[in-house]
Specification:
This protein has a six-stranded parallel beta sheet. It has a four-stranded parallel beta sheet with strand order 6-5-9-10, sandwiched between helices. It is of the alpha/beta class. The protein is globular. Helix content is about 30%, strand content about 15%.
């Protein structure tokens, strides 16, 4: 019996990916790969589309820090039927905007049947600030991270939350060139890097699923908004897709935990068959971990690098010495995955094929091999 064919899809956050650098625009790629794979592992940047989302029953929604820990073999993924999601709201959100997010959360309970706990308002404003690196990648800081952690801890310990959604007030910079470029389908998402900082902090501290939705005032109407950015123009909140993703996000497990008991369905890094990643963004922790040579504890994982998904980074598999299958597009990547799944060599699908060559043996392997027979006990 064949084991499940497992694929990891990565589009790093905040580096201006031409596919996946906008509002859920990598979702079509995820939907296509989910039809090839038995299990698709990906992260919120791929699946979040503001108020838009798509149910992929065989997809695991794994926050970036947790994905890095999984790829390194430190954490396993345990699929769940349903999480109880706790909601943290930044005290810096204005009362009317806060109410909009509470109503959005209630709507997911009534319309989608999600299980949410009571919400918590942080005891101090988080005061998020945004930064841009020289490369063009975005990142950010939180002035009061302890307030965020206290709120998450209260939801976990007092309300029984098994996943955490965070809504933080982000700076409004309506007139910035970066925002205008993003809305017009160019440049880098100005808030994506800071969002990653928030979710990383919660996952690293509590080892449970977390994702973030920014609180922003609605932008002025712009008739030139690009289709890839348009999902963020739909309303007052980006929260629905986050709550949907977290509702069935896998839990993290560690073999070293005293209470750890293996369960059927637990997923570990040595079960990953392929990773699909932009060809210029191969320097992330997860790709580096999964690209390592086979060992007794890790099966060989194919790295598929997609050239036409350009990013602000310039970290190719060749520059890192990573053995990768480089393809032009996600359409070609899908073909590689299909061939891998059914056990067909990609060389057999090309018009020409070179003949087999003879492997030259070293001198140390030549000569007579002697065997000693021993009776079995």
């Amino acid at each position: 019996m064949k084991r499940p064919f497992t694929v990891v899809l990565i589009v790093p956050t905040g580096i201006g990916a031409t596919i996946g650098g906008y509002a859920g625009d990598a979702l079509p790629v995820a939907r296509a790969i989910a039809q090839v794979a038995d299990c698709l592992i990906t992260h919120p940047n791929v699946l979040n589309g503001a108020q838009l989302y798509w149910n992929l029953p065989n997809a695991l929604y794994v926050e970036g820090y947790g994905l890095d820990q999984f790829a390194a073999g430190h954490w396993g993924l345990r699929p769940v039927h349903q999480n109880r999601v706790g909601l943290v709201l930044d005290r810096g959100i204005e009362p009317e905007l806060r109410l909009r997010h509470i109503q959005a959360a209630d709507a997911t309970r009534a319309t989608l049947g999600l299980d949410l706990t009571e919400y918590v308002v942080t005891d101090a404003p988080l005061n998020v600030s945004l930064q841009t690196a020289a490369s063009g990648a975005t990142w950010g800081t939180i002035q009061n991270p302890d307030s965020l952690l206290r709120s998450a801890e209260a939801l976990i310990q007092k309300a029984g939350a098994t996943a955490i959604a965070v809504v933080a007030r982000f700076p409004d910079d309506v007139d910035s060139a970066a925002l205008q470029n993003y809305r017009h389908g160019q440049g880098v998402d100005p808030i994506a890097g800071a969002e990653a900082v928030i979710s990383h902090l919660v996952v690293r501290t509590f080892q449970i699923p977390c994702a973030h939705a920014p609180a922003l005032l609605p932008l002025p109407l712009d008739p030139h908004v690009a289709p890839r950015s348009a999902a963020e123009e739909l309303g007052y909140t980006f929260l629905p897709c986050v709550l949907v993703g977290l509702s069935r996000a896998p839990q993290f497990v560690t073999r070293s935990h005293p209470a750890f008991t293996p369960q059927q369905g637990d997923l570990w890094a040595n079960q990953v068959d392929a990773v699909v990643v932009p060809a210029t963004a191969c320097g992330g922790s997860a790709v580096m971990s999964l690209s390592q040579s086979s060992t007794a504890e890790r099966s060989s994982t194919r790295i598929i690098a997609v050239r036409d998904n350009q990013t602000t980074m310039q970290v190719s598999p060749d520059a890192l010495g990573i053995a990768a299958t480089q393809v032009e597009s996600y359409l070609e990547a899908l073909g590689v995955l299909v061939a891998q799944r059914v056990g067909i060599s990609a060389a057999a699908l090309k018009p020409s094929m070179r003949s087999l060559t003879c492997l030259q043996q070293s001198a140390s392997t030549k000569g007579t091999v002697q065997f000693e027979h021993k009776a079995l006990d």
